[in-house]
Amino acid sequence: MYEQAFALSGAPVEVRNRLDALKDLAKPENPEYLAALGRADAEQSKHINTLMFCFERIVAQYHQARPHMPHAEPRDVLSVVMTRMLREGMSGCTWTRPPTREQHELALALLGNRG
Fold this sequence. Notes:
By secondary structure, the protein is mostly helical. It folds into 2 domains: about 45 residues, no CATH class; about 60 residues, no CATH class. About 60% of the residues lie in helices and about 5% in strands. The longest helix has 15 residues.
């Protein structure tokens, strides 16, 4: 979709000096190009999702779990804590949008990979 949008942006302008660059920046964009670029961005954003954790809640869970795993590496304890928070839907983790099943499983697999 981006290729279609960029095709509507017009031919590249030759920039020989700063004035040419300023003139190019000052001219209004083609509305068809802006609309096509917006559609391409919207389509791409359907596939993007972000998982976020609250650092304070992770630390609290870490301190609770640490005594039960005295010989584990800190990163392994952290991995267990974050995986459990996500798997059990505990407060302290959220997504920018509801995850697909594949996104949720991928996040669990990545968090659980302690190798």
